[in-house]
Amino acid sequence: MARRIHSSSSSSSSSFFRDLRARELGASKAPNLADLSSDLGGRGRGVLAVEHFGGSTPPLAISSSKSIASCRLLAVSDEDGFVSVYDTHRNLPSCASSLEKSAEARVCDWVAHNNAIFDVCWIKDDAQILTASGDQTIKIWDAENRKCLGILVGHTGSVKSLCSHSSNADLVVSGSRDGSIALWDLRCMSNSTNSRGGARFSSAAVVKEAHSLMQGKRARRGKAASMSITSVLYLKDDVSIASAGAVDSVLKFWDSRNLRSAVSQTSVEPQNGKERVQHGISCLSQDSNGAYIAASCMDNRIYLYDVIHLHKGPMKVFSGSRIESFFVKSAISPDRTHILGGSSDGNAYIWQVEKPEEDPVILTGHEGEVTAVDWFTSEVGKIATCSDDLTVRVWNIGERNYKDANSPTAVRKRVTAPNIEGRRLVIDEQAACSTDNPSSPHRHNAFEFSTPESAKKRNFGSLLSEGLEMQKSPEAELSSPSSVLNPPPSLKRRTICDYFVTASES
Asked: Which residues form the WD repeats (predicted)?
């Protein structure tokens, strides 16, 4: 029978349940992505013209900030070597006014390289920005002061892709047009500095010709195959690295602790038993938990892989877009329910992960090839796309849903349940004084209550008191709950590569 409790804490209890109800029922859990728009402009959506000193330039990469405190910021890198940061919570211009009013949404911009910037990445709670450039270097920038903190030198070709470690932002992996994959540790700098005073870094490890064809093989039409690395990922197991290249449709996986050779690899299976035609991969992406990897292939398909079952090949295939250049990218939504992809036909596409056979949502508006795309991790139903039409579009589900578009798990108000003071029975203070420790005369002894001890427990305790040794078998140790928190030292930490190798050997 339920009891109705009346006390002075009723107002606190009411507030607790009111906040709980508002949090769970007030959030938008399943926005209709077909309602995404950008043309009209407004708060949280609009069209941004990428221009500097009166001249427009094609954007090449975009990256939304990841921390909740600055989740509204969008970094854009372009062909002229600029990095621009926009505040997407401001009133963004419409398509008609983008040239005149884009500067109002821009927080700052600066010349980061004297060459095109192919990738940009926020790190360290959005305090720093990494830029990968055609000048063969990677630079570290203070996002607030726009000061160069360091330069990563070692590649001999344009740096096409970079990715930071999920839990240690000092570890960075990069891929270059020279065919190499490099691993960097930002805690280990050389004694020299660059001309601007920033630190100079050398790679901690390098894999050369990571995706080159076997010697003697030639590409179609008799031309030498490109060795370019198009995309790299630091996987969420914090050990493995994934890479893809322009020469074939193979995904390779590396152990960052030993980069001598790939631990495993997987590729697109031939369609209908036909001989496999080698297509390059333009982009790799993963969800926030690292369960899936999406690969945008030059055969106009996006392949989805389960990282635990890589040996089975792609689990799902998504089609409808046109991927005709290596600048066309894709991205899995943070909750891995959707895939957003650019396209050479001037549209952006959104597929449902669980329904690849259904027609995707098509976002129209760009007038050139849609290249880089990104999701805003802390705002449901908000994305960004950039295009060769010299604009970046921020899409949102509408002003009416803007205030409650935050994920309930992303932004939560801390509430406290009513506190009921427990009772404790204490004996007389004079009798409670400790005779064993005179220096603590005011230490109180409280009665302790416990459940009755079972006969089995008493018998077990008597065995221990008699000095009998009781040891667990190895099988029992591995199956016990404590083995999860305290595994035997002989057990090696498993990564996704271990699952792949085990499955392929069986």
From this structure: 110-151, 152-187, 363-397
- Tell me which residues of the chain have a pLDDT lower than 70: 1-31, 191-197, 214-225, 269-276, 398-506
Distance of CA 236 to the CA centre of its chain: 8
**DSSP 8-state secondary structure symbol assigned to residue 274:** P
Per DSSP bridges, beta strands 181-185 and 171-176 are: antiparallel
DSSP letter, residue 178: T
Q: What is the pLDDT of residue 17?
A: 66
Give the pLDDT confidence score for residue 379 in this predicted structure. 87
Which tokens go with 475? 């099988």
Name the β-bridge partners of 15.
none
Q: Which of 318, 219, 208, 308 minimizes the C-alpha distance to 264? A: 308
- pLDDT recorded at residue 339: 98
Say how far apart CA 73 and CA 364 lie, in whole Å.
23
Which domains occur in the chain, in start order?
Answer: 38-401 (2.130.10.10)
CB 16 within 8 A of CB 417: yes
The whole-number pLDDT of residue 292 equals 96
Residues 6+ apart with CB under 8 A from 307: 235, 286, 290, 291, 292, 293, 496
- Do 166 and 110 touch, CB atoms closer than 8 A? no
Strands 147-153 and 199-202: parallel
* CA-closest candidate to residue 295, choices 252, 255, 261, 337: 252
Nearest to 45 by CA among 400, 382, 395, 406: 395
The DSSP result for 227-250, as a single string, is --EEEEEE-TTSSEEEEEESS-SE
pLDDT of the residue at 67: 84
Could you tell me the pTM of the whole model? 0.73
* Four-residue CA torsion sign, 447, 450, 454, 459: negative
Rounded distance, CA 341 to CA 281, Å?
13
Tally of CA atoms within 13 A in the half-sphere of 386 that contains its CB: 26
Largest pairwise CA distance in the chain: 99
Residues ≥6 apart with Cβ < 8 Å to 116: 60, 78, 79, 80, 81, 133, 134, 158
Model pLDDT, residue 94: 93
Q: How far apart are CA 151 and CA 141, in angstroms?
A: 9
Which among 200, 236, 145 has a CA at the least distance from the CA of 496? 236
Q: What is the pLDDT of residue 328?
A: 98
